[in-house]
């Protein structure tokens, strides 16, 4: 059974327990599939990017067969105020406002889902989140992790990416050299570990960022900020050292 989230955001936990790991935050209007319940909890899957976890059972409404989910506006400002069902709600960047809802956007920026993709919009959405604090499992301007940051920026531009960096790294076309990366490409970072079972080295991805040009990258590490970037990895001028080792870059989309 399909539903959409009706809260400004709802935290998703690995298990039906507030002490469990926060693995995601689901934004207003996101489409979910209901896959079971446990007390006041509902197990759901985020259908657009195939991610499962547990949320509180009050935070969604069932989608009727006659409700068209292909036409919507997506919030691009940090927050927006909407009028919906005789109440005023504040929603965050990335919220989807479907036409069938009959909601009015009182203030805040948005774009239609039919808007043509452009690097300018990608850059604008990424930089609008500058200095957002790092928060594991977060995906809002109040706190965000590295893969949540990348996913939210592309989601706001109607490009659906997986939730975690390792899965994001499996998409797209690899660039041969870091200096060949284009603005809007993704750079992936991690370590090389020995796989005892297969008796060979394997790459473990643990970080991702959006390339601005062939020497800078924007990413969520401590907070969202811009750092220097080269074939070794990310260099922090503040810390005076490399903080992440580059594994590869990927071209995800064509502009």
In short:
By secondary structure, the protein is mainly β. It has helices spanning 119-127, 146-155, 165-168; strands spanning 2-5, 9-13, 22-27, 31-38, 41-46, 51-56, 60-62, 72-75, 79-84, 87-92, 96-98, 104-107, 110-112, 139-140, 143-144, 173-174, 186-195, 200-213, 216-221, 223-229, 233-236, 241-251. The protein has 2 domains: 2-112, SH3 type barrels (Roll), CATH 2.30.30; 119-251, endopeptidase fold (from Nostoc punctiforme) (Alpha-Beta Complex), CATH 3.90.1720.10.
Can you walk through the features of this model?
The chain has 255 residues and is mainly β. The chain has two domains: 2-112, Roll (SH3 type barrels); 119-251, endopeptidase fold (from Nostoc punctiforme) (Alpha-Beta Complex). Helix content is 9%, strand content 48%. It is built from three helices and 22 strands. The chain has helices spanning 119-127, 146-155, 165-168, and strands spanning 2-5, 9-13, 22-27, 31-38, 41-46, 51-56, 60-62, 72-75, 79-84, 87-92, 96-98, 104-107, 110-112, 139-140, 143-144, 173-174, 186-195, 200-213, 216-221, 223-229, 233-236, 241-251. The strands form six sheets. The protein has a six-stranded antiparallel barrel with strand order 17-18-19-20-21-22. A five-stranded antiparallel beta sheet has the order 6-5-4-1-7, with no helix packed on it. It has a three-stranded antiparallel beta sheet with strand order 11-8-13, with no helix packed on it. Strand 14 and strand 15 form a beta hairpin. The longest helix is centred in the middle third of the chain and has 10 residues, at 146-155. It starts with a strand and ends with a strand. The model has no long low-confidence stretch (mean pLDDT 93).
């Amino acid at each position: 059974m399909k539903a959409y989230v009706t809260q400004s955001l709802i935290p998703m936990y690995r298990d039906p327990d507030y002490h469990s790991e926060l693995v995601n935050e689901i934004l207003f209007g996101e489409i979910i599939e209901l896959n079971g319940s446990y007390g006041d909890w509902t197990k759901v899957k985020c259908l657009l990017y195939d991610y499962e976890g547990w949320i509180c059972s009050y935070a969604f409404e069932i989608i009727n067969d006659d409700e068209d989910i292909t036409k919507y506006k997506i919030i691009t400002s940090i927050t927006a105020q909407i009028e919906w069902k005789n109440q005023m709600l504040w929603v965050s960047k990335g919220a989807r406002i479907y036409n069938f809802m009959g909601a009015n956007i009182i203030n805040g920026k948005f774009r239609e889902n039919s808007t043509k993709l452009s690097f300018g919009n990608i850059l604008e959405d990424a930089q609008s989140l500058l200095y957002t604090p790092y928060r594991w499992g977060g995906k809002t301007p109040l706190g965000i992790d590295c893969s949540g940051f990348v996913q939210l920026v592309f989601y706001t531009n109607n490009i659906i990416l997986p939730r975690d960096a390792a899965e994001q790294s499996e998409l797209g076309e690899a660039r041969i050299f870091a200096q060949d990366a284009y603005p809007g490409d993704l750079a992936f970072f991690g370590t090389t570990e020995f796989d005892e079972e297969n008796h060979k080295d394997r790459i473990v991805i643990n970080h991702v960022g959006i390339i601005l040009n062939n020497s800078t990258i924007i990413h969520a590490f401590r907070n969202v900020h811009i750092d220097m970037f080269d074939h070794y990895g990310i260099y922090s001028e503040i810390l005076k050292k490399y903080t992440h080792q580059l594994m590869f870059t990927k071209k995800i989309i064509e502009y």
